[in-house]
Amino acid sequence: MKEYLYDVAIVGAGPAGLAAAVSAKQNGAERVVLIERDIRAGGILQQCIHAGFGLQYFGEELTGPEYAERFADKAAEAGIDLMTETTALEIREKTLVCVNTSGVVHIHFGALILAMGCRERTRANLVIPGSRPSGVYTAGTAQKLINIYGNKVGKEVVILGSGDIGMIMARRLTLEGAKVKAVVELMPFLAGLQRNKVQCLDDFGIPLMLSHTVINITGVDRVESVTVAPVDENKRPLLDKAEVIPCDTLLLSVGLIPENELTTTAGVSLSGITKGASVNQFMQTEIPYIFACGNVLHVNDLVDNVSRESEKAGKYAAKYAKGALTSGESIEVKPGQGIRYVCPQTVDKSADADVDLFFRTVVPARETTLVASCNGEVLARKKLAATTPGAMEKLTIPQDKIAGLCGEIVVIAEHKEVLA
Amino acid sequence: MIKTDVLIIGAGAVGVALARELSKYKIKTIVCDKNDDVGGDASKSNSGLTSTSATMPVGTLECKIRTISHSMVDNICRDLDIPIIHCGSIAPVLYPEQMENVPGLLARAFQNGVYDYEFLPKEDILEMEPTLNPNILGGIYSPRDSQVNQFLVVIAEAENAAENGVEFLLDCKVEDICVSNGRVEKVVTSKGEIEAKWVVNCAGLHCDDIAKMVDECDFTVHPRKGEFFVFSHNTPVKVSHIISSVPSAKTRGVLVIPTVDNNMIVGPTADDVEDKTDRMTTREGLESVRTQALAMVPGLRFEDTIAQFVGARPAREPEGYNIVVSKKALGYVGISGVRSTGLTASFALAKYIAHEMQEAGLVLERKVGWIRTRRGIVRFADKTDAERDALIAKDPLYGKIICRCEQVTESEILQAIRRPVGAKTLDAVKRRVRAGMGRCQGGFCSPLIIEILARELGIPEEEVRKRGQKAFMLADND
Amino acid sequence: MKKTIICTVCPNGCEVVAEYTSKDDVQLSGNRCKRGVEYCINECFDPKRTFTSSVAIKGASRRRMPVRTSAPIPKDMLFACAEEVKKVTLSAPAVCGQTVIADILGTGVDLVACMSLDKKED
Predict the structure, then answer these.
(1) B113 and B228 inside one domain
(2) pLDDT digits over A106-148, tens only?
(3) What's domain C52-113's architecture?
(4) Interface size between A and C, measured as CB pairs under 8 A
(5) Looking at the partner chain, which of C75, C82, C114 has a beta carbon nearest the beta carbon of A63?
(6) B290 and B331 together in one domain
(7) What pTM was computed for the model?
(8) Do C54 and A203 touch (CB under 8 A)?
């Protein structure tokens, strides 16, 4: 067994892990290590070769690999250790058990940051009936095969789910010569960003079928067709209106699940809604020496948000490792009317800064007022011309209001006009 | 032309068990199969149950063979390093009408020699299996029912048979059997002609098609489709016994089965269909499995299922195990009617078929040095830190995790490909070492496994298949 | 001339109707704010997109190098660009930002690498 000692250990060198590592170092952690399964840092951004990253963080539009490289360079300059081709297996108290081709590696840490990202929901998660041919891919797997391996996944494609990755893959496949026959979305509204609908679907005349779903897959060997049907208001398919679309490939872009199996080995419990750990504004889980950030915590829309959130995790993990993170009484943050979840789930009253609450709304709407309040006192309020469940929203509670709070903080959304 | 003493058609549980049995003797045996891997159709798509003969039709050949075979299972698993769990089964009685069936079931079990098949009161059953519906009226406990890794049963037997000299011809479809002067002469296959003194039809679902080639088909076989769910390891409610429906006259009903790999399997349906290639799950079928399973184990969380699949049991009409040693075409032996009981029954059935062949003139002279045992691929996931270090010291690729969900290393995948009767497709790798069988269903590891398979098999990545000959993973470049 | 544009500048996603005779005479309606005006005018006369793809690279730990145009190019040239990049194979090492195809298809815009890939040690 190889044994190492670090102030802060971070699992995953994607955008979350890289930002957390750099921030931990800047905030006084001397020995910082990133554990990464892949052959290099960057995580999923390496395969997200489209542009659209960094507008908020860097003020310019970058591709995924460019965004990742900026952070990877920062981490390298800061002297952060990067252990690639190393898989974290288990958290045993304050030891992270990993493995690579040199053997089992024990990383003893002062604080641990979980930044493993997420995985994609599969066909089986949706229970799509039919045969089990080849040619059914999650959008991200197809993206990896095309962008990292230079392979072709199929020629005639149907995409289920109007998430951003699905739409971006529709464009990518079209430019690579495939025919994308339809993007099918169960909900009556788009799951991803409007910009992607325009630039990835409309630009290429790819039909978007809202309030539809895939109800059958045929093909003994390779996919031969999928059956698409409209759904009623309860999402039940209207079988008599079903339509068979011949194709050789079905891509699924139907949601992401935080990859928390490692987290549970430490005994950290997971939220039923986000499928991630619950944290306070320090990005600290219920186990004080374990922090979490990025998509392993809750699935984000923009990597820029991930970077900012992860910088907090890095900062407070560094403080914790030095014994300088004081914690006080904790109060809960609850999603109220029109809100699906709020992260962080608790606020520690010993706040040393303003507290950002990130959350998602439930329905697309116009003229939305977002309010965070506690015992009738409004802590933060914001009016927006439009909101959509696809976008992460934020309210900031001023630091000076936090020490005096009692009870719980509730976030609500009031809409003037609900769409769809 | 290839020449052999015995040609076994079908590399499912029965064909491969027979091959292993015949490998003890000084004869040449070839097994051919239309599929790219051993495991057949029904033999790989099932729940891995090995159970007693409690519910078998009394006095039948099936009952007799299965009873003997069930007593052989543990030794086979030990010799061939096949994972098995001895979890026992419970059939909870949910309704008063089911209670009426209980005395008859107990009487039949007794007649079949299964003396430890007992009815227990509700309180005792719930203490043994607290996940059950608290409103049950009691339950039938059958302590000797177990679960094996059904893929590894056939793979392990095949590896062992191959090591003992049996040859496997896969991707090899039988097109005709030529008979001359009342004897089988040769078999025409997609891979050429094979001259065989004995031809044993172990083709399961397709045994009627083969039997027609020698005019020995006085029966029909159709698929009885069974739809199943597979659950993730980390679902909160898991059963510790096999939970089965109280058998009715018609069907055994839905089961909730703990597995050696800690994934529950829930199913099956039993739908008779025409098309032998039909492996479609259906909305109605899956819903009926869900409803029946939840009636027994209300806490099951179906949102945690990681796969659904269909198994096709060969349903013979008329029913019953049937072994024909042909008089019209000497050398032809036909096995039919082996349905879902085949996995359990295959070990004794192989002995029985060999005996019948011997009676009909096959000379079985024991060879010296037959290798009885086979070791499985050592699993990284099961090992301690020190054991893992030792594995990696010997083979650094034991430190390279390819499938992160199931913690499968590159070394294990390479062994799966390189062993005798090795894997040639993604599904074959999955059945041997579980890579791609976890919660992400191959989302992360399949690009890596495509790369490894292409490299090992010396083919372009576009030619790597999920299974079979045409289920290509990628589109070709044109 | 009349054209309907979905504005992508903010999450509002306004369906904007542009009526115009020339670049200097554009009437927009349906927009809830002014932020998307420039975008909508460009969509009428000169729609542009950033093109991204990947090209083959030899001698690196990866088989593909992600690439992009250094600025947006006319939308109707995306397919032509996709064909153009198939002709290129890079050799490691390569650095992020290096030109892969200068002045691609006469657009005045360069195709550049988006990742730094070292030469693979064997």
Answers:
(1) yes
(2) 999 999 999 999 999 999 999 999 999 999 999 999 999 999 9
(3) Roll (3.10)
(4) 82
(5) C114
(6) no
(7) 0.95
(8) no
